[in-house]
Structure formats: C-alpha cells, structure tokens
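Spend some time on this chain, tokens included, and walk me through the fold:

. . .
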Amino acid sequence: MAGSGIVQGVIIGLTLAYLTTIVVLSAVAKAETRTVNGWSAIRKAGRPGNGLLVRAALQKALPVVNVFEEAAYWTATSDKAGRRLSGEHAYRLHFPADQLPPNDAFWSLTATDTVGYMISGRAGRSSVDSHSGLVKNTDGSVDILLQPHQSSDTAQNWIATPAGRFKLMLRAYLPGAAIVDGDYEVPPVVEVRS
C-alpha cells in the first residue's frame, strides 16, 4: 500500500505545480496588461527578448499573436460602468469624428463568447471592420450598436451579440503611429437604456 501513497503524492504534487503555474502566469499577464476605458491591451505580446516567464504568460493570454506594431489587439468584457457585457442589454461604441482606429491596413471589431470564439447564428453578423461601409453621423462620428437584434436604422453599424455574456475584440492591423505610441484610446462601451 505504500506505493499507492507515493502515486497519490505525485498526483497531488503535479496538480499543485500545475495550479501554481496557472496562478503565476495569470499574475504576470495581468501585470503586462494596460486597461483604458474598459479595453485591455498587452503591448509586449509577441516580442522576442521578453524572457521565458513573460513569453509564457503572454502566450497563455494571447496565443499566436503578432507584435503590437504589426497588429494591435484590445479586448473588453465590461461596459463603461464596469458591468459585464451581456446580450440582455444593448450597447453603443461611439467613435468621435476621425477617431476610428488609425491603421495602414484595416481594423475589425468582433463580438465573441467569453472564451474568444466568434459568435455564429441567424441573428446577424458578429463583426464590422474598416470595409463594412459604416454610416457616419452628421458630425462625422461613428456609432456601432451591439445588441442581439437589429433595429431598422442600424443595419450597417450593428453587431449581433449572444443572449449571455460576451466579450469584444478590436484589432488594428499595421496600426497607426497614435496606437503604436500609446496615444490612441478606444472609447468605452456604453449601455443604451431604452
């Protein structure tokens, strides 16, 4: 029976080592994450020379990601008030005139489930991008509506959201200087109250 105690000890030791690794990697990734207006970005992701621990932590947080200078990634899981994004509510993302993500290629905004998988379904599209023909407001600003069902006046600027929790991912490929320098800020996601 002493052998079964050794096996149990090894299993418990390996489990604790795994859990400790997850906690450490999550803490390192959190330390490398910058959040502004509810949007989180990891500017160091994909860079050589980060060191083994930082590279492992960032790979866990953003697997297979380019360096920030090639593709900037932001994620949001809560609105301006700090409440988790949920398909039970409608939201608006308001970009002031000439404040869509500056880039030399294109940008895209995608609604995903909480794990990061694109939402599919009959309800509508799960993303918009710089080629979507977004309709500008009279002042040149752009509003993107995020809700489960399309209303008649939001066809071009609407992203379908799932019934439950979701997150948003904004990407800018070949980001402009304002993004690379850290001067650009993504506007907050605001709940639309009826």
Helices lie at 2-32, 52-61, 177-180.
